[in-house]
Amino acid sequence: MWCRGTITELIPVESKNQRKKPCGPIRYKVCDVALLKAFLIDFGSSVVLVFSGCDPTEKPDPATLQTIETHDICLFVRKPDQHIEAELAAIPPLAVRCSLKDVAPKNEDEGWGEEAKTKFLEMVNNKVVSMMVFREEDGVLIVDLRKPPFNEISSNIPLSLKDALVFLDLARFKLQLPTQLENYTISHYSPPNIPQEGEEVFVVVCHINSPSDFYLCLRESVESLALLEKIQEIYKKEDGENMEIFCPVEGQACIAKQEDGNWYRAQIIGLPSCQEVLVKYVDYGNVANLTNKDIRRVKQEFLSFPEKAIRCRLACIEPFKGANEWNREAKERFEEMTEDKLMLCSVIEILDNNILSIELFNASADNRRKFSINCLLVEEDLASYIPGYTEKTEVKPNEIWDDPLEEISKTSEAFIPMDMEPVDEGDYRSLCNKELHGRISHVVSPSKIFVQLLSSESILKSLQEEMASFYKESQPECVKWESGMHCAVYIHDVGQWQRGQIIRIVSETSAEVLLYDSGAEKTVEVSCLRKLEENMKTIRTLAIECSLTKIRPTGGSTQWTATVCERLSYFLTGAQVKIVIQLSPFFQENDMSCALPVKILCKDETGKMTDTSEYLIKQGLALRNRRTSKADGACLVSKEHLQVHFKQKNTQLDGCNSEIACARNRTVPEENSSISESEQKPLETSKPHSGMDEVYKPPIVPEAKIFQAIVSCIGSDGTIYIIPKSFETALNKLMAEIQNTFKGLGLLIPYCWKKGEACVVRGSDTVWHRAKIIEVSGSVLQVQYIDHGYIESIPQCHLYPTTFYTGIPPFCIPCQLYKTLPIGSFWQQDAVDYLQELLKNEEVEIHVEELPDNPWDKLSISLYFGGMSLSSFMACQKYCVAEDGQDLQKLGVFEGDLSPSYLLQPLPDPGEIFPVTVTHVVSPKEIYICFDSSGNLTKCSATERAASCDSESLKKALKWCNKIVKTLPHVTNFKKELPCLAEYVDGLWYRAKLLSITQLVPLQILVQFVDYGTYLVAPSSRLRHIPYPLLKYPVQAVRVLLAGFRPASDDKNVERIPYSPEWSLKALWAMLDCVEGRHLSASIHTLSPEVTISLYGDDKNLVHLKLIEMGLAELDE
C-alpha cells in the first residue's frame, strides 16, 4: 500500500557516522542514501528504509520502528507527479498529533520510557476509543482518551487511559497548585453546629476512637437520612457526570466510598502517595485510606449542609490510674454502652478546636446520675477521675437539689389543691409575648400540642421517683375500674409509673387512659393500674395543652390531615422548644374550652430557631389565617392548663368537675379561629386515607366521542393511561406552576407517610409531579403519578406532602379495551410488555365506547394506531379475544387469488403549476416526483392539500408498522405487482411492490418502493405482508417524463447509462445535481400515454437548460 509521507531523517553513504536532519535544503541522490526515515502523515507512524549494504549498527532507535531493508530504495519511495501532488495537497493530513491532558512522564528528566510507550500502544492500537478534546497548544490537541460508552464490558480498554498509566506507575499527574485547579478554589464544608456550654441535647455516638476521642451527631442530624439517600442516588449512577478528582488537595471536600459500597461526604486530610488519599467522613468522624478512584467531586448542593460529626471527650475522667492510653476493655465497654442508642449529652465545656467536653447519659433512664456513662466507667475501674475531681464534688454550680415530694406539696406554688380556685388569668397575661422554655411531650395536631415547662422538670422528676418507689413492690388490686377514675399507670415502653385518668374501658383486661402529665393516650392492661395516692393528686397537671396560632388547614378543609399531624409529631415530639404565649384581648376567664394559643420556636437541623407555624406554611402543610374578626381572636386560655380538679371519691366525674373529661370529650377548641368543631380526633382514632378518590377529583373525559391522545403509560394490569391532546396545554401550564412552586425546596426530612396520601414527587426525570402514595415500605415509597399513570419507587427525600393541587382533576384517564377479553382473564406479563413497547408516548386515536358508572373506574375505549384496531391486532397475536372482531380481516394475510393493489395518486390539472420534490432519477429524462408538503398548503389546490395530508398520515402509519413488523408474516407468494413491506438499507420498512425474481438460489427479488420510485434486490427475509390499512393511501411517487430536451447528438462521453445508453453518465450526474434536495415546481403537459411535465428549478427556469449549457442535451422541438 502506498502512503503519503514526509522525510524526517537521511544518512548518506559517504557520512555513515553522522546523521543529518532536514533542517535545511539538503539533497542526496537516492543511490547515495544509506538510511531514510519517513513520517506517514495519514497514520502518525514512521518507517525506516535501510540500504542492504549499510552497517546494521547505524539503524535508528528505537528498534520498534518498522524497518525495511532493500537493495533499492527507489522501489519504496516515489515522488508524485504534479497533477497527483496538487490533488493530495488539498487533503490535510489524516493523522492528528495529540497529547494526554494533565499527565507527565514518571521521571521528567528521562522522558517517556519504552515500557510506557509499549503499554500505551497495547491499550489503543487499532482500537476504537472515545476522545474528548480540551484545547489546542502549538498544533497539538490536548485530549483525554476513554473507553467508548457502547463498548463491551469485557473489553480490555481502560475507562481512562491516563488513569491507567498512572495506576500502572508509568506516569504521574501533573502537579498543580490549588489556585490552578479546574475549580480554582478548594471546596470546604461548613463546621458542625455545636451546642452551647450547659446545654443538654439528644445525640447518637457515631464513631469511637477512645472515651477521650469520639464523635457524636445531634438527633436532628440523625433524622436527615434524606441527604444520604440523595448522595447514593447521584454517585451510584455509572452513567453519571464525570466527577473524578485527578489532583486531590489536602483539605478538599469530596464524596468518598465506604467499605459498604455507599458514598458519603468526606474531607481529604492526607496524601500518602500519588494514588492514595486519607479521608475523614465528616458526618461520622471515622477515617479511611482510599485510592483516587474511590473519591469524587462534591456537588454544591451537598456543601450547604454543615458537617454532622462533632468531636467530643468524656469530661472529668482519664484512663484508669493515670495510664497513658485507654485499654481495650474501656473502649469496648464504652462502645457497648453507647452503640445504637439515643443518648443525652450535657455540655460541660467547649475546648480548643470546638472539641466538646461532655457528660453522657442514657436517654431512657429515670435517674441520670445512676446512668452517667462517665461515672459508670469509673465505677467499673475502667477510668479514673482527673486529679482534683471527686464524685462528691460532681454537683454543677447551677444544679439545684430537689426537695422531697412531701415538701413540694406543702410549699411549692407550682401546685394547686383540688378545692382551690384556678390561678388568675393575669398570671399568664404577665407572661404574654415572653419566651418560656419547654419540652414537647405529645402532639395530636397543630391545635393540640402538649408542652412540659422546663421549670417544672424537678417536680416531674421528684413525682416519678416517688411513684417508682411507692409502686415498685405493689401488686394488682381488685378494683372495678370505671371511666373518669384517676390512677397510677405503669408504662412498659419507658419503664415508668405515671399519673393518668381512665378514658374508657376497652375490655375486661384493658383500658384506655389519658396520661395528663404528658398529654398522651395509651391502651394498657388493667394489671398495670393502681389507685393514685392522695398526695400525688395535689400536684397540678404538668403538661400544658397548646395550640399554634395564625394558621389553618389547607385545601379549604376545617380538619388537619393525618399528614400534617404525623409530620408535626415527628418534628416536635421530645424536642426542647421555646413557647411564646399569645393571648387575645377577648380572653374570658370562665372559658374552659380552648388550648393555650402559642407560638412555638424550635431548632431545625441547621441549628437555627424556626417558628413552627411559619415552617408549616412554607412546607405547604398549612395556610396563614388572615381573618381579623373578633371571633378570630377570641381563642381563650383553658382552665385545664392551670389546674386539675380531682375528686376524693373515685366515682363518675361530671363534665363540670373534670377538666380532663372535658378535654377528652372535645376534639378542638370551640372558638379557635382556624379550626372548626369538626377538628380531627387524636391519631389513634383518626380514619386512614381510603385512596385517591378521597384526595383528588376524578379525571374528565372529553366530550368528543373520537379524539387524539398520547399513551402515557401501560399499567401492570394492562390498564392504558391516556392524555387527550386537548389537555396538553393545561397540563404543561400546571407542570410549570408546580416547578416554580417547589423548585427552591431543599432536602426533605423523613416522616410517616400513609397509603393514598396526596403529594408532589421529584421523579427520575428531576421534574416535580403530582402523585399519590401507593405503597409504604421503609425509606422507599411506591407512588403513582396521577397525571401520567405510571408507578415508580422513590426515596422519601423526593416526596413532599401537599394538597395544593388536589382540586384539579388528573389529566390522564385510565382505560380498558372495549369487549376485549385477555387470555387467562387478565393480561399476561408478556402482553403488558408488548403494549408498553408498542404504545408508550405514542399518539393514538380514541373511540369512546362506554362511560364507567363510577368516575374513577376505567373508560371503555376502542384504540386505533396507524388505522389498525388495537383489540384486533392483539387478538391476532393471540394475547386476547376480541368479541367484536370486525377488523380482523383487515389485518389478514393476502393469499390465494386475492391480489390487492395500491391506489394511484390523483394529479393536478394540466397547465397548473405545483410544488414537487424529486425522489428518484432513472435517467435525465425519466424521474419520480412527489408533491411537496412543505409548501404553503393554503395556496395549494385541493389535490395538493389532500396529497399532503395523505403523506403525513402515511408516515405515522409506517412508523407504527415498523414497530409491529416482526409480527407480520413473510411473503411466500411472489406475484408481480404484489404490494408488500420491504426493508431498505437504512433498516426501516417501506411500502413496495414485487417486480421480478432475479435469482433463484439464493432467492433474490427485485422490488420497487412505491413512495419513492427506487429499486432494490432483496432476499425473501426482507419482504413481509403489508397490513390492509396501508393500502388506503395512494402511492406517493409518480413516474413522469421531462419534456423539452433530448440527448445531445454530439455527446462524446464514453461512459453511458447501461439501461439507457442514449444518455451519458455525466448527464445523469448533472441532472442529479440540478434536482437533488431542491424545492422544485412542475406543470403537466400530457397525462397519456405517459405523464409528461416541465420541471422548474428554484430560479423558475427549466432544469434541463443546465444540461443544454453543458452540451449534454439539446432542445427537442
Strand-helix topology:
Layout: E1 5-12, E2 33-40, E3 46-51, E4 66-70, H1 82-89, E5 98-100, E6 103-105, H2 114-124, E7 130-137, E8 140-146, H3 161-167, E9 171-173, E10 200-210, E11 213-218, H4 219-222, H5 225-235, E12 253-257, E13 263-273, E14 276-281, E15 287-291, E16 295-296, H6 300-303, E17 310-314, E18 317-319, H7 328-338, E19 343-350, E20 356-362, H8 373-379, E21 383-385, H9 405-411, H10 426-429, E22 435-445, E23 448-453, H11 457-471, E24 486-491, E25 496-505, E26 510-515, E27 520-525, E28 529-531, H12 534-537, E29 544-548, E30 551-552, H13 562-572, E31 576-581, E32 596-603, E33 609-611, H14 612-618, E34 623-624, H15 630-633, H16 659-665, E35 706-714, E36 720-724, H17 728-742, E37 758-762, E38 768-777, E39 780-785, E40 791-795, E41 799-801, E42 813-817, E43 820-822, H18 829-839, E44 843-850, E45 859-865, E46 868-869, H19 870-876, E47 880-882, E48 913-921, E49 926-931, H20 942-964, E50 979-983, E51 989-999, E52 1004-1009, E53 1015-1019, E54 1023-1024, E55 1038-1042, E56 1045-1047, E57 1056-1057, E58 1060-1064, H21 1065-1075, E59 1080-1086, ...
Parallel strand pairs: 3-4, 5-8, 17-20, 29-32, 42-45, 55-60
Antiparallel strand pairs: 1-2, 2-3, 6-9, 7-8, 10-11, 10-19, 11-17, 12-13, 12-16, 13-14, 14-15, 18-21, 19-20, 22-23, 22-31, 23-29, 24-25, 24-28, 25-26, 26-27, 30-34, 31-32, 32-33, 35-36, 35-44, 36-42, 37-38, 37-41, 38-39, 39-40, 43-47, 44-45, 45-46, 48-49, 48-59, 49-55, 50-51, 50-54, 51-52, 52-53, ...
Radius of gyration: 43 Å
| N→C terminal distance | 54 Å
Structural class: alpha+beta
The fraction of residues assigned to DSSP E strands is 25-35%
Uncertain ranges = 19-23, 176-184, 365-370, 392-426, 586-592, 627-693, 886-898
- Quote the average pLDDT: 78
Record field, number of beta strands: 61
Q: How are the strands of the largest sheet arranged?
A: 10-11-17-20-19
Helix share bin: 10-25%
The shape, in one word, is flat
- Biggest sheet architecture: 5 strands, mixed, barrel
Count of helix runs: 22
Oligomer: single chain
GO molecular function, one term: zinc ion binding
Subunit structure: Interacts with MXD1, MXD3, MXD4, MXI1 and PIWIL1. Self-associates.
Function: Seems to be involved in regulation of transcriptional activity of MYC. In vitro, inhibits DNA-binding activity of Mad-MAX heterodimers. Can recruit Mad transcriptional repressors (MXD1, MXD3, MXD4 and MXI1) to the cytoplasm. May be involved in spermiogenesis.
Organism: Cyanoderma ruficeps (rufous-capped babbler)
